[in-house]
């Protein structure tokens, strides 16, 4: 990373190796066309989540979805979608071998049934997937995990921590050679678990979980645009996540979990879970890293550790941010509705040029 110094200690600009987003929801159709340029402006590649309706459960469906993404990319922009398959109780070991052979499927995603947006087709009991997980371990196909129990008797703020004991630890014991990414971690418990695990375990961290604690959801009223899953946690957890992200530990890397939902679906009696962060993702991360006094740790977190973990080359290009006030727009157009970006209306210190 190269930085340009100002008289003060803070640099006036930072140039990073071009980053990647290791957890992204792009949706489909008009929604895909609306959000894709926001991501492609900053990121060279992204791990594209498969929770469409119906979900992307096969290599053939992933190939079609990949073509639709590439077709939606504006002329002159370059972006490589890294595809994933949605794990179900019925995913076969043969499907895993097909996915591996494709060269464009880079992970399989575990959604515990009922845990989050579009997870109804998810796994009801992980032991049903043992033969499939065995095949993944054998061919070297990573498993991305939405690590929350769907058990309604467990408090919503405890669902991630409970998942570690009930599912993550047993899974790692049964498949010690399987690469696993604990997605969008939100607790000190998860950060600690990943830090202490062996090198086949890593985690992604979102901008909202670095910048906000759960008070953000209830500031002067209910704030649906801060509602995502796993839900924001208390301040001690946010601090643990900032410490993990800025530690220089290669197990923690960037994954926005940018999850667009139309304004009408967010501002509703039963609002959807998901924060739209893709519009200004790198700016949000830079803000969090600057607050922690760790801007020098942004480049490895954003541009190196994820590629290394997935066994892909680091990008060649670069991305420059300047330190100038940038007001996040109140909304952007989205599929005959609007999208309200994370931190709408607030001023960030950094702006991508
Ligand atoms: N994070 C979210 O709150 N929502 C995601 C699903 C997910 O990543 O769990 C979505 O697809 O909307
Ligand atoms: Zn998730
Ligand atoms: Zn997600």
Automatic annotation (TrEMBL):
Pathway: Pyrimidine metabolism; UMP biosynthesis via de novo pathway; (S)-dihydroorotate from bicarbonate: step 3/3. This is Dihydroorotase. Binds 2 Zn(2+) ions per subunit. GO terms for biological process: 'de novo' pyrimidine nucleobase biosynthetic process; 'de novo' UMP biosynthetic process. Pfam families: Amidohydro_1. SUPFAM superfamilies: Metallo-dependent hydrolases (SSF51556). Homodimer. Its cofactor is Zn(2+). GO terms for cellular component: cytosol. Residues 21-320 form the Amidohydrolase-related domain. It catalyses: (S)-dihydroorotate + H2O = N-carbamoyl-L-aspartate + H(+). Belongs to the metallo-dependent hydrolases superfamily. DHOase family. Class II DHOase subfamily. Zn(2+) 1 binds at residues 23, 25, 109, 257. Zn(2+) 2 binds at residues 109, 146, 184. Its EC number is 3.5.2.3. GO terms for molecular function: dihydroorotase activity; zinc ion binding. The active site is at residue 257. It comes from Derxia gummosa DSM 723. It is an enzyme of class 3 (hydrolase). Substrate binds at residues 25-27, 51, 146, 229, 261, 273. Catalyzes the reversible cyclization of carbamoyl aspartate to dihydroorotate. The keyword Metal-binding applies. The modification N6-carboxylysine is found at residue 109.
């Amino acid at each position: 990373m190269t930085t340009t110094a100002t008289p003060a200690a803070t640099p006036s600009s930072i140039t990073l190796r071009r980053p990647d987003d290791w957890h992204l929801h792009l949706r489909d159709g008009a929604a895909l066309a609306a959000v894709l340029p926001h991501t492609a402006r900053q990121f060279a590649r992204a791990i594209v989540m498969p929770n469409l309706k119906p979900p992307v459960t096969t290599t053939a469906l992933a190939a079609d979805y990949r073509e639709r993404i590439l077709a939606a990319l504006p002329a002159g922009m370059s972006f490589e979608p890294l595809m994933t398959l949605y794990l179900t109780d019925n995913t076969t070991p043969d499907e895993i071998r097909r996915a591996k052979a494709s060269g464009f499927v880079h992970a399989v995603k575990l959604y515990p049934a009922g845990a989050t947006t579009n997870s109804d087709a998810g796994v009801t009991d992980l032991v049903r997937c043992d033969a499939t997980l065995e095949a993944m371990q054998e061919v070297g196909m990573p498993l991305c995990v939405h690590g929350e129990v769907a058990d309604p008797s467990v408090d919503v703020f405890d669902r991630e921590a409970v998942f570690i004991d009930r599912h993550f630890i047993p899974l790692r014991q049964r498949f010690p050679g399987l690469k696993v990414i604990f997605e969008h971690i939100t607790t000190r418990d998860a950060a600690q678990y990943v830090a202490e695990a062996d090198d086949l375990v890593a985690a992604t961290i979102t901008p909202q979980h670095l910048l906000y604690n759960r008070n953000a959801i209830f500031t002067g009223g209910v704030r649906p645009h801060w509602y995502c899953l796993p839900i924001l946690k208390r301040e001690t957890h946010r601090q643990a996540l900032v410490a993990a992200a800025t530690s220089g530990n290669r197990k923690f890397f960037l994954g926005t979990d940018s999850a667009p939902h139309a304004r009408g679906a967010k501002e509703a009696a039963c609002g959807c879970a998901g924060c739209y962060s893709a519009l200004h993702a790198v700016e949000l991360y830079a803000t969090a890293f600057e607050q922690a006094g760790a801007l020098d740790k942004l480049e490895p977190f954003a541009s190196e550790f994820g590629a290394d973990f997935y066994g892909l080359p680091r990008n060649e290009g670069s991305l420059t941010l300047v330190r100038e006030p940038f007001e996040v727009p109140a909304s952007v157009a989205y599929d005959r509705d609007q999208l309200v970006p994370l931190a709408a209306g607030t001023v960030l210190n950094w702006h991508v040029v």
